[in-house]
């Protein structure tokens, strides 16, 4: 079966994906796969978030669409039988059967199902199933992406041997078994610069050790030419950050709140006495 692979690190926020989606679905009637959508629906959307601050500020981008879950909550919530899974794994809301109860809208934890008040039906991404049935080799959003942020891939090829980064899923803790796959999803990070006590010398090559204060999971990095450091962690939480280099006193900062990415700005290290 085919699915969409998303690499947010490649996203340029060009908006080609959602423009192509709207061009395909806003006016055209592809029933029983999809009826025309409305302008206020975003079947695919890139969320852009500014994280950290100063010289270490970054823009984290994540493209989100219906996850076509293998254990889809929307299917369980639908009482009319309008939502079904095709043999190729694509989850469809049949507009000719939908009664507009909106229970699927409430059930979707990804908030990717929209209500069309004019037609009184629920709607969402179909992976352009009507085009795939007509012989297309990929959905419109994938075809429109200029930087390979989106790829249409065989699920059986999503193996450790074939991947250039660890495979991830959107909010796996929800238990929906989403089929849309991700690599290099944005992670919280801690960043800053290391300098001596009067900030006249940048400290290069210092070891930076970041430890989750609950799980003990450890992440490491080193300061660069200008004393700059950047260490990603695997999940939000509270961490301790330790700095060490020969000739300088070790320094540890505890209770660093990395529920969101954080810049520590300038961290000063004092030389050891000779």
Helix-strand layout with pairing:
Blueprint: E1 2-6, H1 16-25, E2 44-51, E3 58-65, H2 73-77, E4 83-85, E5 91-93, H3 103-107, E6 114-116, E7 121-123, H4 129-133, H5 140-144, E8 150-154, E9 167-168, E10 181-183, E11 189-196, E12 207-212, E13 218-222, E14 228-232, E15 238-244, E16 251-257, E17 262-269
Parallel strand pairs: 1-10, 11-17
Antiparallel strand pairs: 1-8, 2-3, 4-5, 6-7, 9-10, 11-14, 12-13, 12-15, 15-16
Give an overview in words.
The radius of gyration is 23 Å and the shape is elongated. Helix content is 11%, strand content 32%. With 274 residues, the chain is mostly beta strands. The protein has two domains: 2-183, Alpha-Beta Plaits (2-Layer Sandwich), CATH 3.30.70; 189-269, Immunoglobulin-like. The longest helix is centred in the N-terminal third of the chain and has 10 residues, at 16-25. The mean pLDDT is 95. The termini are far apart. It has helices at 16-25, 73-77, 103-107, 129-133, 140-144, and strands spanning 2-6, 44-51, 58-65, 83-85, 91-93, 114-116, 121-123, 150-154, 167-168, 181-183, 189-196, 207-212, 218-222, 228-232, 238-244, 251-257, 262-269. The chain has a four-stranded mixed sheet with strand order 8-1-10-9. The chain is built from five helices and 17 strands.
| CATH topology heading of the largest domain | Alpha-Beta Plaits
**What is the distance, rounded to the nearest whole angstrom, between the alpha carbons of the first and last residues?**
66 Å
Largest sheet: 4 strands, mixed
Overall domain count: 2
What topology, given as strand order, has the largest sheet? 8-1-10-9
């Amino acid at each position: 079966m085919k699915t969409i692979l998303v690499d947010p690190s490649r996203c340029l926020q060009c908006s080609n994906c959602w423009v192509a989606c709207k061009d395909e679905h806003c006016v055209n009637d592809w029933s029983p796969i999809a009826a025309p959508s409305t302008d206020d629906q975003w079947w695919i959307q890139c969320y852009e978030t500014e994280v950290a601050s100063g010289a270490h500020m970054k823009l984290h981008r994540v493209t989100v669409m219906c996850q076509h879950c293998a254990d889809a909550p929307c299917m369980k919530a639908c009482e009319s039988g309008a939502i079904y899974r095709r043999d190729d794994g694509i989850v469809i809301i049949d507009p000719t059967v939908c009664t507009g109860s909106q229970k699927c809208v409430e059930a979707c934890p990804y908030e990717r199902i929209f209500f069309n008040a004019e037609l009184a039906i629920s709607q969402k991404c179909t992976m352009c199933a009507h085009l795939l049935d007509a012989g297309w080799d990929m959905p419109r959003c994938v075809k429109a992406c200029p930087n390979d942020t989106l790829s249409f891939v065989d699920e059986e090829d999503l193996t450790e041997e074939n991947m250039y980064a660890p495979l991830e899923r959107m909010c796996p803790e929800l238990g929906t078994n989403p089929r849309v796959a991700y690599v290099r999803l944005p992670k919280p990070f801690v960043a800053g610069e290391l300098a001596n006590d009067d900030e006249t010398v940048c400290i290069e090559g210092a070891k930076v050790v970041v430890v989750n204060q609950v799980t003990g999971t450890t992440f490491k990095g080193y300061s660069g030419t200008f004393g700059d450091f950047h260490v990603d962690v695997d999940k939000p939480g509270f961490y301790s950050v330790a700095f060490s280099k020969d000739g300088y006193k070790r320094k540890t900062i505890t209770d660093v709140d990395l529920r969101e990415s954080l810049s520590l700005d300038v961290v000063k290290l004092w030389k050891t006495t000779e």
